[in-house]
Amino acid sequence: MTTTQERPVGFGRMPRKEDARFVRGHGTYVDDVRLPGMLYGAILRSPLAHARILSVDTSAAEAHPKVKAVITGQTLAGLGLAWMPTLSYDTQAVLATDKVRFQGQEVAFVVAEDRYAARDALELIDVEYEPLPPVVDARRALDPDAPVIRDDKEHQTDNHIFDWSAGDKERTDEVFAGADVVVAQDMLYPRVHPAPLETCGTVADMDAITGKLTVWSTSQAPHAHRTIYAMVAGIPEHKIRIISPDIGGGFGNKVGIYPGYVCAVVGSIVTGKPVKWVEDRSENLMSTSFARDYHMHGEIAATRDGKIRGLRVQVIADHGAFNATAQPTQFPAGFFGVFTGSYDLAAAYCGVTGVYTNKAPGGVAYACSFRVTEAVYLVERMVDRLADELGMDPAELRMRNLLRPGQFPYRTQTGWEYDSGDYPRALRLAMDMAHYEDLRHEQAERRERGELMGIGVSFFTEAVGAGPRKHMDILGLGMADGAELRVHPTGKAVLRISVQTQGQGHETTFAQIVAEELGIPPDDIEVVHGDTDQTPFGLGTYGSRSTPVSGAAAAVVARKVRERARLVASAMLEVNPDDLEWEKGRWFVAGDPDQGRTMAEIALAAHSNLELPEGVEGHLDASCVYNPPNLTFPFGAYICVADVDAATGQVKVRRFVAVDDCGNRINPMIVEGQVHGGLADGLGMALMQVIAFDEDGNCLGGSFMDYLLPTSVECPSWELGETVTPSPHHPIGAKGVGESATVGSPAAVVNAVVDALKPLGVRHVDMPLTPAAVWRAAQGRPLRTDLAIT
Amino acid sequence: MTRISVKVDGTAYEDEVEPRLLLVHYLRDHLGLTGTPIGCDTSNCGACTVDLDGETVKSCSVLAVQADGSEVTTIQGLAHDGEWHALQKAFHERHALQCGYCTPGMIMAARDLLRENPAPGPQEVREALEGNLCRCTGYQNIVRAVLAASGQEVSS
């Protein structure tokens, strides 16, 4: 282990503080929590996608000697909790009362003395269903004869959820009418699932004496959860404590509130004991937040010599049975409006229509940055389609059309203001790293021999750090984040933050931010997160928002402390504060560097009997709420090299080059780890992951037998590069990055595979590019990958 | 109920357990050894990997009664006198973990590999860890860490 002296006091490759407990099995995840008298809950789920509930008989389950309670939709209806609000101002059934609307939906909740007994008791519950025809194909959801899924909602006479658009339609139509070249392509971003290795779970503990509810939970947004519990259950907010302990990955799966959490709370209230509920993998995949499921029709307009002029997009968004999509209120399609990508267009327009189907709710998850995955995939596939149509090299076409550094801050045709970028430099670096020209030569030679080799390029602009509270809120909660910093008398510090790490290394990097600002070694700074009684309010970690919002808050609060320290130091040194200068860790007298005080000396003095100037309170602490002026817009250039076996359709990703620019890097080691993980996600989505359904609405991706994740064998050795273009509006010039690789990589893989298949006349294949899908596409009979209907 | 005696991380235990109790639940719920997590229900993820009498097993797919008379080593038994196992050190130094959830099983599987093949190549490491899923790291730093723990030079 490295010593403190070898570690940077501030930014740099610092090994993680978190590791000491994790490598020894001493993390504390939700299922590790054990409380005295704790009971276990389990959920009975619907075997059908769409059916009326005629009766629920729980008598046999209740007679089980180890069962303490059986909760049904009727029980919850009596408490006003059968339905709960979602993050999209829709409602979601906690336990079904009238009918079930997706396979795997929650129908009853058993509380028993141990987890085995709870599962046994589920078998004893008898539910009588009357099957109804399900809506499975999102493209048919608005057909006049489609069954109405949400007949619980007044005035809901069809499966329509919303229409949303961005850009100038008229102007875009004009640009398209006058274009030399227009290429259109239908494409599906299939339903996938973030599948964190730890599933969702909770331990709810209602203390009947104090009236205080403590909930240990897999929550990426514990403060938002507390507020929502208060709103839903009517428990006063100061009597609710949410604790997000160590979380075994979130990837957007753990943003919202799931019925299991609510049932555990009710179970604890009913039994007077703590109740643990932890779902198994199949429950996680079938019922918790899915990702994507965008059916997109893209059109791109250009001049014959390769100047991209416009983009036009229509999307059918499959939201499942309840619209529980997590995104800022004014953005029902998230930030899909950034689909104009990294290019300077004359006009752009998109329309998104959300529909209900008989599937699990979700949509925004899996490192999507609020639908930026879909936006980037769309534009990067369209640019490749255009390159093919024009007979141009796709890298060359991008290089010609990328925004230039002098254009930033750049306002897009859909109203986003990109903060900074040097796109050509990043693309050039990626091409150099990949030896792009050599690859094209190799490809030409292989094609001569009949081999299928493809080179895929993707250039993306991300949009992360939601967000300015004027425009962005979730359920009315503005997306600003708090931070509190306290320096103890001996110079050690504690930083309390509102965001919640799920592996991204916040305990290390946030200490580094404070260390950089104050010169206190990171090991002397404890980062507290996840406990709503102990941390300031904020909206949690998702959308790669921790660094842009909370990281900014940490820097600002440290600067406030530094200014307080200056006043204390001036009292100690008996000089005017204006005469002091800062060097990392120390205030000293300008022109007399020997006359100075370290942060540790200042901290002790701030707590002593030292007489302080008028208005200076003493102690050494500060708090702040950071309301970001804009998002941050990191970017990257990715190149994938893939070989396809023509006989079997098997794809092998041979190389993957990824250049990321997220502005200043707090800890490059951690950034690289984030990128590695995101690239594996992207590879998995492109090649193997899908949650498909059959015509009866049976979920065909409900376990790791079918829902495939890349292993160490499928992943290549990633080749990373970086450029640094700081965000001008961010206190430390840092942009978010966690989701960049997931956002940018699928298009690179698909572009590579389609490039490989070009000699066979293939122009597009929908993800996932399984051997079956690729082989079928090569035969000219493409698969519909979302439906198990051929 | 069946009586079992089993030694876990050097400590002997005697218990009455249901025959259907999975070894992973015995470790976690009965012994409180929660360092070994559960990531799936189909034996794919390997998060629950432990050492059973010198064999690496997925403890979600072994019954506790099958471990009767056996010796089990979990991630919590690897460090000695506060000194981390070489793999634990290498995982830390090479940033081979993020959320930490796959880490116990990953280290146990890698330990098994290095026992059988003290100087594996990168591809051999990848193939040996195929039964262990990780959602955070993209595997690269795990491969580097295992190579480093084997005492081999690792570039970058």
Automatic annotation (TrEMBL), chain B:
The keyword Metal-binding applies. This is Carbon-monoxide dehydrogenase small subunit. It comes from Streptomyces olivochromogenes. SUPFAM superfamilies: 2Fe-2S ferredoxin-like (SSF54292), CO dehydrogenase ISP C-domain like (SSF47741). Pathway: Alkaloid degradation; nicotine degradation. InterPro entries: 2Fe-2S-bd, 2Fe-2S-bd_dom_sf, 2Fe-2S_ferredoxin-like_sf, 2Fe-2S_ferredoxin-type, Beta-grasp_dom_sf, Diverse_Oxidoreductases. Residues 2-78 form the 2Fe-2S ferredoxin-type domain. The lineage of its organism: Bacteria, Bacillati, Actinomycetota, Actinomycetes, Kitasatosporales. GO terms for molecular function: 2 iron, 2 sulfur cluster binding; metal ion binding; oxidoreductase activity. The gene is coxS. Keywords: 2Fe-2S, Iron, Iron-sulfur, Metal-binding, Oxidoreductase. PANTHER family: OXIDOREDUCTASE WITH IRON-SULFUR SUBUNIT.
